[in-house]
From TrEMBL:
CDD domains: Precorrin_3B_C17_MT. Residues 36-116 form the Cobalamin synthesis G N-terminal domain. PANTHER family: COBALT-FACTOR III C(17)-METHYLTRANSFERASE-RELATED. One of its GO terms (biological process) is methylation. Pathway: Cofactor biosynthesis; adenosylcobalamin biosynthesis. It comes from the Bacteria. Keywords: Cobalamin biosynthesis, Methyltransferase, S-adenosyl-L-methionine, Transferase. Residues 191-309 form the CobE/GbiG C-terminal domain. NCBIfam families: cobJ_cbiH. It comes from Streptomyces griseoruber. Gene3D superfamilies: 3.40.50.11220, Cobalt-precorrin-4 Transmethylase, Domain 1, CobE/GbiG C-terminal domain, Methyltransferase, Cobalt-precorrin-4 Transmethylase, Domain 2. This is Precorrin methylase. GO terms for molecular function: methyltransferase activity. Residues 317-522 form the Tetrapyrrole methylase domain.
Amino acid sequence: MIGLISATAAGAAARDRLAVAWPDRTRVYDGPVGDAVRRAFAECEQLVCFLATGAVVRLVAPLLGGKAADPGVVCVDEGGRFAVPLLGGHAGGANELALEVGELLGAQPVVTTATDAVGIPGLDTLGLPVEGGVAAVTRALLDGEPVALETEVAWPLPPLPFAAAGTYVVRLTDRAVEPGAREVLLRPPSLVVGVGASRGAPAEEVLEVIESALREAGLSPRSVASLATVDAKAEEPGILEAAARLGVPVVTYTAGELASVAVPNPSDAPLAAVGTPSVAEAAALREGGELLVPKRKSGGSPAMATCAVVRRPGRGRLAVVGLGPGARDLLTPRARDELRRASVLVGLDQYVDQIRDLLRPGTRILQSGLGAEEERARTAVAEARRGHAVALIGSGDAGVYAMASPALAEASADIDVVGVPGVTAALAAAALLGAPLGHDHVSISLSDLHTPWEVIERRVRAAAEADIVVTFYNPRSRGRDWQLPKALAILAEHREPGTPVGVVRNASRPDGTARVTTLAALDPATVDMMTVVTVGNTATRTVAGRMVTPRGYRWQEEPE
Ligand code: SAH
């Protein structure tokens, strides 16, 4: 819950805007501000105070408990001009909240946390549990002192300025070691615990066998990624409760899937009960990896739970990121985050230039020219397989006539793939033209570089016959000039000469143009490779200069 506190009428007006926008996330604290701040501090995870920073500093100072426990506090000035995360920038989420509040109120977020300001990801923002001297090691990173990275387990880190050696150390480990004063431990989710349980096995017994296995093997519970078991045990309360207490999900497999896994300690009991000679070991080993703790039984008599622990192979991360049509504000926030999350960026040189300023310092850039698509796809996958965090970029949507399919055709199951959708050219153009895509529509690329012209022509003809709105990508280049007239002629066999046609060049870019013409009047010479051409169907009209395709023949009678 976010507690909202204000003192004056102006503050209350801004406060109410937040309360109305986020009814389920916020609670207004009325009354004398000192009292309100104290109550909100005790009850909420976050506070937004429409008060001077000085006033808030004095009020919360006596309440401070520690970074891990204190709520995040954001101050907004009386004029609603600035949103200042005052306390709990990272752990309390105040930096992020300030961005959100800023967006809502039109206020400038003023983030003063050093790592955010200089473009180094905070060690506590990597999505991994951290232990040890976070403040000391972060300061060393910011001061440019050598900080060494020791990776016992591969995990795709964002770019951080690590040195070959140093007195400060960041260690990626799943072992139960204590951090030194100048050391930070990052806990990657590298351990899979396979569990078996008899019906009605108590959660305590399941937890006990897991925890003792980890303890004796010297492994950290904070690196446990999941509990794995057979699907017949998917609803077993003791397993669910143990997973909830460890804060991890339960992953299940069919008996058949488990029976096919080679294990060191098969037995007859599970074979009779659930149809596989091993549950704990097989479930833990199902995704591959190294068996660190072979099957062991709980201490009960009879023993009702078993477990086995596997260190799974490190997984790289491939993000396939669409950059949108060009304008910076049509690049999604998620795309921006993924670009900053990557330590390796792969893309066409002109797209790299488009977003270079968003990258964190230290990002390795692998750019290549037009025509090197296959090489880019292969490079991106190879880097991810080496355990890196890779972003493969494309303009518009990276899955539309772009890099996603060649890359995923190469990718194996041993990497994680994240897709970030982007605004594709057809949509960017449609928004400029009016509402040409209000009913069924297709995109067709007129490039016959990779597709035989007969195939393209057959598809154009099908769209023509089916009366579907068509957007042509790659419509015309210097060496390919007859395809567009030919495609338009096929459409003209089924559509009137006056059918509206939209021609959009460089949509959303500074020199962009959009115009609406007709099938008969379109001059193909005005079309080039920076352009998309959208041809209306027989119902498409021009209304006040805009292209409009009705949603249906009876659309005005139908509800939205
Ligand atoms: N992945 C891209 C498309 C790549 S194919 C996307 O989703 O938009 C390249 C073709 O896309 C170009 O020849 C052109 O037809 C079209 N295109 C890309 N960006 C454009 C823009 N800003 N304005 C108009 N057309 C564009």
